[in-house]
Amino acid sequence: MKLNDLGPLMARRQDGGLSFDRFRTDPALAALQWPNDVLRDFLFDHGDNGHFVDDYGDIDLRAITWKLETIPAAAFPTMPTGESDAGCIESYAADPVYWVKARPPEVGRHWEDHGTWLRPPLLIDQRLLDPADSGLQVLEGRTRVGVLCGRLRKQLRVAPHHQAWVGRS
Predict the structure, then answer these.
(1) pLDDT band for position 51 (50/70/90)?
(2) Which residue among 11, 24, 111, 156 is least enclosed by CB atoms within 10 Å?
(3) Distance CA 44, CA 103 (A)
(4) What is the SS3 assignment for the chain?
(5) How far apart are CA 121 and CA 3, in angstroms?
(6) What confidence tens digit (pLDDT) does each residue in 87-127 have?
(7) pTM for the complete prediction?
(8) Rounded distance, CA 168 to CA 123, Å?
């Protein structure tokens, strides 16, 4: 099953006919056995986003296993995102203070208190996209990763390690 195959399910979600609780119990999605955070952030929120479909539409979703991992802060500044959104992480990194203030107050408090994001972003092993590639790519959470990179650059509080959902085969 590929992201491109979920068009009818995405259309029902767009029509308001599916809450997240109903969406995640669809037999095709339940069979994936993905964490709810990943289902929500990747498929429910972005499964019909043109950029996501362009970049990730041909991945076999059944081949991905998700695990919450701890990633060093130093790994994020060189991490790419999908081709369709090239440059967006850098645009968020250019003004991390603004992008934190544009979020609910608890997001800013969490950055100040813990030096990290409130919700883990989604990263994907690049080998799922091209077997010849290696390393991780930002799938969802580009704003969060951009804020982290900008905070590093501006020498604002940043924890040395961060939690992220990582999809691997």
Answers:
(1) confident
(2) 11
(3) 20
(4) CEHHHHHHHHHHHHCCCCCHHHHHCCHHHHCCCCCHHHHHHHHHHHCCCHHHHHHHCCCEHHHCEEEEEEEEHHHHHHCCECHHHCCHHHHHHCCHHHHHHCCCHHHHHHHHHHCCCCCCCEEEEHHHCCCCCCCEEEEECHHHHHHHHHHHHCCCCCCCEEEEEEEEC
(5) 19
(6) 999 999 999 999 999 999 999 999 999 999 999 999 999 99
(7) 0.93
(8) 9
Residue with tokens 């969802």: 140
Q: How many other CB atoms are found less than 10 A from the CB of residue 132?
A: 7
User: What is the Cα–Cα distance from 37 to 40, expressed in whole angstroms?
Assistant: 5
Query: Is residue 158 predicted with pLDDT exceeding 80?
Result: yes
Instruction: Label the pairing between strands 161-168 and 65-72.
Output: antiparallel
